[in-house]
Amino acid sequence: MNVLIVESSKPLAQLWQRHLQRSGANVWTAYTQDAAFELLETRSFQVIILDVVVENDSALAISDIAQFRQPEARIIFVTNTSFFSDGSIFNLCANACAYLPSSTPPDDLTNMVHHYARAP
């Protein structure tokens, strides 16, 4: 299973990456929109963990490119803000499968990644 993490906070991205790798996932990390675009062009992902607020970039642009290039990839949105707390993110991104706080325990996030990677 290939997972892409798009998160501006390197310590948080690395924490998630370690947990996912211990569970057997292949994990790539992008800290910027451009890095995410490049990975979406060169790799195939089953699940993308995408921070709603990617510093100085657009999470919705990243999700649009993911939807275009990899329509089967499931996107788990994470955030430490109240953006889209009304659930509207699911109307904006057809690939969205979950919306979680960034403070979600890494083990719980890992379990969700495995669940959505198996989901049809």
Name the features.
single chain; 120 residues; alpha/beta; Rossmann fold; five-stranded parallel β-sheet; 5 helices; 5 strands; 42% helix; globular; phosphoprotein; Sig_transdc_resp-reg_receiver; Response regulator receiver domain-containing protein
What would you say this structure looks like, in words?
By secondary structure, the chain is an alpha/beta fold. It has one domain (2-118): Rossmann fold. The protein has 5 helices and 5 strands, in the order βαβαβαβαβα. It has a 5-stranded parallel beta sheet, with helices on both faces. Helix 2 packs parallel to helix 3 (59-69). It is globular and about 30 Å long.
Total beta-strand segments:
5
Structural class: alpha/beta
Strand line-up in the sheet with most strands: 2-1-3-4-5
CA-based gyration radius: 13 Å
The shape is globular
Largest sheet, if any? 5 strands, parallel
Keywords: Phosphoprotein
Modified residues (4-aspartylphosphate): 51
Protein name: Response regulator receiver domain-containing protein
InterPro entries: CheY-like_superfamily, Sig_transdc_resp-reg_receiver
Blueprint (SSEs and pairs):
Layout: E1 2-6, H1 10-22, E2 26-30, H2 33-42, E3 47-51, H3 59-69, E4 74-79, H4 89-92, E5 96-101, H5 106-118
Parallel strand pairs: 1-2, 1-3, 3-4, 4-5
InterPro entries: CheY-like_superfamily, Sig_transdc_resp-reg_receiver
Pfam families: Response_reg (PF00072)
Protein name: Response regulator receiver domain-containing protein
